[in-house]
Design goal:
About 25% of the residues lie in helices and about 35% in strands. It starts with a helix and ends with a helix.
């Protein structure tokens, strides 16, 4: 394959992966606490294909490769719900939840209480406090979640003030190493241990909306689609030129 074809193919491959990232962002516009992803590209230089190269030539060809996918960890807008179990995190921190695969982390503060009295996420994963899972009693009333994550209730007929736990908030020194695992959860990634967050606060009765901008993502999708179409047209033009050249050579008398 000629160098122009190889370069065009490398660009189409990266555009296809970029389109997957943009499409996933758009699909999660309404996902609570979702963080958008961004594609990062770089130039990749290498010697050209042998059939296009003279012996001893050191001319290099510029290809395109997608270096990484970065998380946009900026905060999304807060929406007031007045639901006492909803919390929005103010700061670069995550809630800790327990899953069959171990501890995972989320910004989705739309919480619930399951039939066992445990505080859980929408997908049913128990939310962990500083002393383990947070469990409520059937007689608990007026749940209050303080800015520091401390959870208190009024218990029983006499409405005694009782503590049910404290939300465990953690942060990461290398947050870009976090791995998305679906269900709005992150895994820490190798060598990326969580640290207790001392500055993050929680706002009860609010949820954090997705930080995806629908206008920006739709614009990116159109740009990617347009670039892919242009490259396809260029490659087709090159193929037509080669075919035409071969046909004309075939007509040359021997």
């Amino acid at each position: 394959m000629e160098n122009v074809g190889l370069i065009g193919l490398s660009r189409q491959m990266t555009l296809e992966r970029q389109l997957d990232v943009v499409a996933n962002n758009i699909a999660n516009i309404n996902t609570t606490g979702f963080k958008a992803d961004r594609s990062v590209f770089e130039e990749y230089l290498r010697t050209p294909a042998h059939e296009d190269n003279f012996v001893g030539s050191d001319r290099r060809v510029s290809f395109v490769q997608d270096r990484a996918t970065l998380h946009d960890l900026s905060s999304g807008p807060n929406e007031q719900t007045k639901n006492p179990l909803d919390v929005a995190i103010d700061g670069n921190a995550f809630l800790v939840v327990q899953t069959p695969g171990g501890e995972r982390y989320t910004r989705d503060g739309g919480l619930q209480i399951n039939d066992k009295g445990q505080l859980v996420t929408k997908s049913g994963s128990p939310v962990l406090g500083t002393s383990g899972p947070i469990v409520f009693q059937p007689s608990d009333k007026d749940i209050n979640i303080a800015p520091d994550g401390n959870i208190t209730v009024l218990e029983g007929v006499n409405r005694i003030d009782s503590v049910r736990g404290k939300l465990r908030l953690v942060s990461f020194s290398q947050a870009q190493r976090l791995l998305k695992e679906g269900s709005n959860l992150y895994a820490a990634g190798e060598g990326n241990a969580p640290q207790p967050s001392t500055t993050a606060k929680v706002n009860q009765g609010f949820i954090e909306r997705s930080n995806v901008s629908s206008v920006m993502e739709m614009t990116r999708m159109m740009d990617v689609t347009r670039a892919y179409t242009q490259i396809s047209a260029m490659l087709q033009q090159q193929a037509d030129m080669r075919r035409s050249a071969i046909e004309k050579l075939a007509d040359v008398p021997a």
